[in-house]
Each structure stands twice: as structure tokens, then as C-alpha cells.
Amino acid sequence: MLLEVRNLDVGYQGKQVVFGASLRVDAGEFVALIGHNGAGKTTLLKTICGYLKTGSGDVRYRGEDIRNLSPAVNVKKGLVFVHQEKSLFPNLSVLENLQLAAYAIGKAYNLEQRLKEVYRIFPILKDREKQMANTLSGGQQKQLAVGMAILVEPQLLLLDEPSLGLSPNLVKDLGNVLKEISNMGTAILLVEQNVKMAISLAQRIYVMRTGQIILEDTHENMMKRESLWDLF
Amino acid sequence: MEYLAHTLNLAFIFVILTVSLNLILGYGGMASMAHAAFFCIGGYISAIVTMNLGCNFLIGVLTAIIATAAVGGALSAPFIKVQEEYLILFTIAFQMVVYHLMLSLYNITGGDSGIFGVPAASLFGYTADTPARFLPFMAAFLFIVYYVAFKITKSPFGRVLKGIREDEKAVSSLGKNVIKFKVIIFMVGTGIAAGAGGVFAHYTRFISPTIGSLDQSILIIAMVVLGGTANLGGSALGAFLLIIIPEVLNFLPGASDLIVPLRGFIYGALLIFFMRFRPEGLIPEYFHLRSRKRTLPGARTGKQPADDCLHFSMTSEEKMFNRTGPILEVKNLSKSFGGLRAVDNFFMSLDKGKITALVGPNGCGKTTAFNLVTGFLKPDKGQIHFAGKEITNLPAYKMPHIGIARSWQDIRIFQGMTVMDNLLLARQSQAGESVIRLFIMPWRVRREEEENIKKAFFYLSSMGLAEKGSEIARNLSYAEQKLLAIARLLATEAEILLLDEPSSGVDPNWVKQFMQIIRGLAASGKTICIVEHNLDLVRGVSDTVYFMAEGQKIAQGTAEQLMADPKLGEIYFGV
Amino acid sequence: MGLFLQLLTRGIITGSLYALLGVSWGIIYNTTRTFHFAHGFIYTFASYSILVFTWMSVPLIPSLLLGLFTATLAGCAVEYFAYLPMRKKSASQLSIFLTAMGIMIAGQSLIHLVFGPDSRPLEGFPEHVISLGTVTFTTVDLFTVLLCWIVIVCLFAFLGHTKAGMMIRAVSSNPEKATFIGIDSRRIFVLVFGIGSLLVGIAAFLSTIDKPATPNIGLGALLISFITVFLGGVGRLGGAVLGGIILGIAESLVIMVLPTEYKMMVIFLILFLVVLIKPEGLLGKKIA
């Protein structure tokens, strides 16, 4: 088991947002977390990677207790979080954004090779290498954000709504890329508002409502459901 | 004896200066670095007016107060509007300019030698020509200043200021013009400083730029911080302590050359020390609370929220709108951010006494639409009509006044204020929120306040919080805070309530109770619009649901109708 | 015309120094959003450090380097020992500002206590008059302009092309994301305070070879440095450079129409008008 969260409570600014959430992600597994906006999905992700403090409960990564470790430490351990927005540095060039992701954790060796790998997955980033990140289109910015994450060769990728603001075509492309990253052996915990896409990609799905995980089900069972409205 | 009287006079002047700066820094939450400059300007104005017109010193001091407050307010307003750093920037620059001008405008200010022969203060034949004879004047002035400051800070006006320090946006959503309040308190503080300058000029019978330097301004700030921000007693204490220190230093042999830097070092070190280890100062802000508790009418008979409590008696205002059909109509509304059309040609109408919900996938523009309707954003295009009147470009702080109030997803109650004060702040058009009316019609302020407490208590009871009135809001549980937010919203007595994600952050078991409350509000005649992601709640309360996507309304109907439409499912869940 | 050219030259000289002061404060403010009032103390401290080394018979250049080094350390220390603990407590901007003010006033008074109120010249720098047509200036002026611009260009190159520079830009544009990818923003803050203090130390050196130092020279420099930043635009270091040049030239040219005492007044007026018309500053992005 790569990641295990048990009975996690999270609150900030005096309000509790997550109530006793439990979930797990196995090595190389693709897991999705869906639910209405404000259900606490993003909060849960930010807590796992160490940005928010846990209330009570357990967070284990590769068997190790990672509660209250900083995101910086977790990134070095291969646990990488990608924001839904503001996920890059607007006044740095595309290349600089990528380089910085590697420099920040002192992973500068073999950078050329890993850059090549990122460019293979996202060819457009190669063409835009010298451009400032804030001149990229919405879709390209998403690609860059994911590119920065895979550049540091994570074991577990926490993605927060990567499809937000993308056109249907781009969403499809994004889905393919996520599939590819997953096939390379990286485990993914995906938070998505594009529920259909999340269900079609993930092997297991958790559903969250008002701070609680109300359902866990397999890809097959979720695909068979007639309506999703009752989950939201 | 005369030495003692002189020291006392000096201390009184500094108490006046700290109290007035505390109004700006402590109560207004703004750093004014030009307090000494305003003090000095007041001295010059009063000196020049009395010497040239030969009038009584009181006229000079009054002129100084009014002129300085007016100029200070006019100059600072554009900076107060922007951000807190900008006022620091402005006041430092202003302080430096004034100091330089006082030194260089020889014809008016006498340059660095200043103006001599300022007439002594005299009243009804009593001339204060020695420090001891001046003491009664100084004490009277101090008393007036203290009274004014006390009255202001304990009034509804002071309550709004406290709210502003905690959360500006929440205050404007309750119908107060935040900038106006800030500028006014800046003017009051500045005016008092100028008055002190005037009095000081008539006391020493001499005015020069040395007392108007940046160092002096910083000294006054240090006194306020030392004594405790937002605490008038603390200010007096701080002033006394910092006046006594250099007087004591005077007795040290051979220290006379070093007195200025030594004093500076002590003030600076005290500032650092206090900000780090005791930012609340010697006397903290809520010190007085321990001895003083507001008694509430019927506080002991508080009831739990029951259905019957939610049927409110109608006020005259509400009767005005006692009709059915659409009460708020939104036409053509559009708003773009950069190139992105967040809200595009949006139509909506809210029916009296009904609950309308806005739903749609993330990023569909419902929050933007919500902010447009509540005045927190200005639309690029389109109109909003309320009860037949156009209100399209009305700023947010005017909305509650005409009958539209909003709640916040992250509740935004005033954590450091009492529950009762949270509600009182929400009452509209209070006479006590005007500094002038506070003093010319105190009886009206008092009567209104009593009235408002009764009303606030009524709304508190309706949410089952009757017994919590005198508690500090942050000590309530989250669910109680959420109830408090609703009670506060009701206290505005707005006709239309817009609720921003009412279920957010609530224990799942509480969602049902909130559904009941919302339904109860609608039953009592309130018109309600919610933006909500928890579809359970939407299904449970809404009469009409607007389905939005890409900034437009694409469907409208009951929750069941919309959820039966496979096309909407595709939009909501993706393909 | 001759007067105009002479004043313009003077304006460019002053403006270059102001631009340097502006970037020294601007890099700190843009990255950490601290209203670093104690910057003025660092300025005075740098001047006196250099002086102290020369009094100990260290030659001018090594004195300069040693003085700059101690000033840089002092700047880092202010961040590490004074501001950082307050940030950890999530103190308000206002209380950090008040702390900064305390450091400024205490530090300046301490220098006064130790070295007395007298002005202290920095000697040993060759000063000759150079005339170009009707325009005259000194070797010190020439050196000032050259050094200012070399330093400014180096700073931009550093920010643009080094790992550390990249991290500084990253932290200032998106601090949360920077934390997430593993940048330690505390270290970046200390670094930025070091750089800002080094730069202000250079500016202090340049003004001390021109005018003797007194314990209260820091205040004027501080005032110029942040007015420059707000004038040019918060968040844009280029804005501080532009703001500095504009202030320097305006302050110099105004002598043609008004007596020198109105210098401050003109600076203030420019600031007032800019905030009134374009609060985000000349090159700044709109404030949300």
C-alpha cells in the first residue's frame, strides 16, 4: 500500500472541512475522488501532502507517518501535488518553470533526459520553451503544471481538478496523458469535477459529500450506474 | 512647583496625542506616521489666526481642528482607498513635506526659529500665563478629548470600526461604507491632534517645527503601542511612562547630550519588544469586559430554535414589499475577466417568498453572478431591477439598506466581537454611526440602540442563541457561528437573502437543520437565492433551480426536472 | 539651455542613485511584502561600518567590501531574528511594520550614542572636476552613475539567469506553489534581505563619498527608496528603476522654477498624483 489515510479530520480557520475520511492508494494504482464542490476534496489532498495540518487521524505514505511533514519534504519523497489553479510561476518561462521544479528539491542530475521525457508527453511545451508561462493558453498551462510534476519522477501524483476550464477536446487529450502517466507506473489520486472522465480512467473511485467519504466503488460498478445525481 | 505643573501639562498633551492617534491606529487599524505634523500644523494655524485676527485662543484652536481635519481627510482619502501600505506611504511623505515646509516658509512659519509671542490662553478674564495657571485649561481639554474618544469608541460608530479591523468585506456586506468610516476616524484623530497643537502653542506661547518631526510621530506611536492599541486607558498610561522616562534621564549626571539618542533607543527597543512579546500592549483591548456585562432583555428565557420562531412579525418595511411575483429581476447581465466571459447574458428573476438555487459545474459563473447581484462586482452590461427600481450599479454597501443582503461561504462573523455586537452591527441606518449625530442627538442614538438590542435579541432567539448574547463569537461552536451568521443576516431585515454555499463546512448531520431554517425563512416571506454545490440541499429546499453553464442560464425548473434531463447530466458530469 | 543641461545631468546622477535605492527596497518588498522600514537603518549602518574600517587604517576598497559584508549580514539578521518570528506567529502587516520602525529608531539612536552626532566624511576617493561643454560634474559623480548601473544590470542578470534568482522570482510571484514544489521560502526571504541590504550598502557608500555621514542619513534614503517603488509600481523591479530616474530628474529640474526647499514637495506631489490617477504605480499591475 502506497498511501493510507485513516479517519482523518481536517479543519482550518475554525471550521471543520473533512470528517473522518479514510482512503488508500496502492502502488501504481489510479484512484479518483469525486464529489460536489466544497465537499472537502481539495482540502483532503492538501492535507495529505502536508500543506494543511491534520486534526486527528492517520496519514501513511509507504508505511511511514507523514502527518505534519512539510510539502517540501513530501515532494522529495515522491509525493507531488498539482494545484487546480495558480499552478505555475507566471513570470518565469516554460523552461524555467520546469527547471525550477527540479532545482527546488536538488534533483538537477539527468535533467536533460527527464526534460526530454516531459517534452515527449507534451510536445507543445518544447515549442513554447522560451515563452513566459502566463502567455500560455489554459490548456498549455495545465500541461506545464503536470509536466513540472512528472519531471521530478513522483511515485504518487495528487491532481486537483486538472480538467477545470478545458474544452472537451483538451479534456480528452488530458485523459490520454493521465492514462499514459499511470501506465508508466506512477500512482495517481485524481480529484475531478469531470466525473465521467474520472470514472472512466480510475480503477477505484471514492465519492465525497459535505466532508465525508460516502462511497467507495470499482470502475466497473461505477460505469454501470444509471444516474450520478444522487451522489452529489 | 512650576516644574511639576509643566511636566503635568506636557504629559496631558501627550495623553491627548496618544488618545487621538489610538483612534486612528488602534480603533481605525491605520498607521498614521504624520501625527506630529498634524499637531504642529494645528499649532501654527491657531497661532497665526489668533495673532492676525486678535481673537480668543478658542477660536484659533477650533479653526485649527476644523481646517486640519478637513485637509487631512481630503488628502488621505485616496490613499486609504487603496491599501494599508499606501496610508503609511502617504503619511510619511506628508510628514516629511510638512516638516520641510515649516522650516522653509520663513514668512509664514518663521523658519526654524518659529513664531514667538503667541497670545496666552484666557477666558472670562482668567489668563493662563504660568504652567500652573494653565493646568485647568489643559485638564478641561483633556477631559473633552477623552469624553469624545470614549463616546465614539463605545458607540455604534466604534462598533463598525471594530468590525472593519476584523473583516472589511463583511462590514460592507452589512451595509456600511468602509472607506467613509476610515476617513472619518482619520479626520477625528487628526483634528484632535491639531487641537492639541493649538492648545500647546498657547501654552508655551511659541511654536516651532521641532515638535513636528517624524521622530515625534514615532514617539507617539510607541506610546500607543506600549499602552495598548484600541484602549484609551492604555494610551494615557503609555504617554505618562514615556514622558517620565526622559524626565528621569535628565537627572543622570552628564547625560544631557545623550538624552535624545538615549530616548530614541529606549522607544525603539520598547516598540520591538512589545510587538514581539506583548502586541496587545500593557492593557489589552477587552480588559474592561471582565467587569462589564451587557444585560439582555429576557436573556434567561432563551429558547431553542423552533419552527414558530421562524415566523417573524413583519416590519413596516417588509409590508411595503408584501406582494407576490418577481421581486428581483436580472436581465442581460454580463461580466468578463480578461478575455474570459464569466457571466454572459444572464437572466434571472427571484419570486417573493420563494427559494431559488443556482447550480452548475465548477467555473460556470454562478459565484460571479452572485457577486454581480450583490454589488461586489460591477457588471459590464445588463440591468438589475429590485421592486421595480434599477439598482444595477449600486455599490455593495448600499445593498442591505435597500433590502438585499448576502451571507458568506466562510461565514465571516466578527470573531473578536460579542454575539450581540455582531447583530447590532448589521442594523441599518443607525444614527449612532454618524459622529456628528452621536453628539448632537444622543437621546436618539440611545433610543435606537435600545430598539436595536431588542430586535437583535429577537433574531438571536430565533436561532436559539438568546443566551449567548454576551459571549465572544469565537467561543461559539462552528454550527453556532453558522447560526449566528444567519441571525446577523436577518438582523439587516433585508427582503432578499442571498446565501453563498450555506452548507459549506457544516457537519453533515446539521445540513438537515439548515434546510429547515432556510425553508422557515422563505415561509416567513423572505426571498432567498442560494449558490450551493451540495445537490442534496438544493433538492431539499429550492422551488426553482437555475442551471448555469459557461456563464449562461441553460435551463430552469424544479430540481427533479433538471436532474431528469440527460443533457444537463452530461454538462454536469462530463462525457 | 546650459542650466537645463547641467540640471539634467545632476538629475541623472541623483536618479541613478535613487534607482539603486529603489531596487534595493523593491526586491525586498516585492518578494516578502514587508514594509521594511529598518532599511534606513541598514543604510546608516553600512555607511558607518565602512567608516569604522577606514578608521582602523584598512584601505578604502577592503573597507568597502568589509562594510558591505557586515551590512548584508545585518539585513539578514533583521529578517531572521525580528521579522521571521513574527511571521511564524502570523502577525499582521501593521505589527511587522511597527517592529521595523522600532529597529529603525533604536538602531539609528544607537549609532548616535556610539559615534556622536557629528558628520563623518569618507576620505580617500579621488575627486576631480570634469567639464563637457557647459556641463560639469566630478569623478565621484561619474563613478556613482557607472557603479549604480553596473549593480542594477548585475541584479537583473542575477534574477534572470541564476537558480537563486529564479527561486526569488518564483517566491514573489506564487509563494504557495513555491512551497509545494519544495522551495524553502524562509531561506529565500533571508537571501532577499541580504541582497537588498548589499545594494543599499552600495548606495550608502556612494553617498558617503559625496556627503559626510551622520546618524540620521538613513531616513531620507529610506523615504526615497519606497516612494520610488510605489511610484514605479509594486511587483515590478523595473518600475523602481523608472521611478528612481523620474524622481531624480524631477527633483533636479524643479530648481529652474522653484527654490530648492520645495524639492520634497515636488516628490510628494508626483507621488500624490500617481496614486490618485494610477494607484498601482506607473508600471504596476492593477490592484485587485
Helix and strand composition category of chain B: alpha/beta
CATH fold type of chain C: ABC transporter involved in vitamin B12 uptake, BtuC
Q: What is the CA–CA distance across the termini of chain C? A: 45 Å
State the helicity of chain B in percent bands: 40-55%
Short description:
With 232 residues, chain A is of the alpha/beta class. Chain A has helices at 41-48, 71-76, 94-104, 111-121, 123-127, 138-151, 168-183, 195-201, 219-224; strands spanning 3-12, 15-25, 30-35, 58-61, 64-65, 79-82, 156-160, 187-191, 204-209, 212-218. Chain A has a domain at 3-84 and 154-231: Rossmann fold, CATH 3.40.50.
Kindly describe this structure.
The complex is a heterotrimer of chains A (232), B (575) and C (288). With 232 residues, chain A is α/β, with parallel strands linked by helices. Chain A has a domain at 3-84 and 154-231: P-loop containing nucleotide triphosphate hydrolases (Rossmann fold, 3-Layer(aba) Sandwich). Helices cover 36% and strands 26% of the residues of chain A. Chain A is built from 9 helices and 10 strands. In chain A, the strands form 2 sheets. A 6-stranded mixed beta sheet of chain A has the order 6-7-8-3-9-10, sandwiched between helices. A 4-stranded antiparallel beta sheet of chain A has the order 2-1-4-5, with helices on one face. In chain A, helix 3 packs parallel to helix 6 and helix 4 (111-121) runs antiparallel to helix 6. Chain B has 575 residues and is an alpha/beta fold. Among the domains of chain B are: 2-213, no CATH class; 326-403 and 494-573, P-loop containing nucleotide triphosphate hydrolases (Rossmann fold, 3-Layer(aba) Sandwich), CATH 3.40.50.300. In chain B, strand 8 and strand 9 (389-390) form a beta hairpin. Mean pLDDT of chain B is 85; it is low at 288-321. In chain C, strand 1 and strand 2 form a beta hairpin. Chain C has a single domain, classed as ABC transporter involved in vitamin B12 uptake, BtuC, CATH 1.10.3470. The relative contact order of chain C is 0.20. The mean pLDDT of chain C is 91. Chain C has 11 helices and 2 strands. Chain C has helices at 2-32, 39-55, 60-88, 93-115, 139-161, 163-173, 175-180, 185-210, 217-232, 237-253, 263-277, and strands at residues 129-132, 135-138. Chains B and C meet through helix 3, helix 4, helix 10 and helix 12 of B and helix 3, helix 4, helix 9 and helix 11 of C.
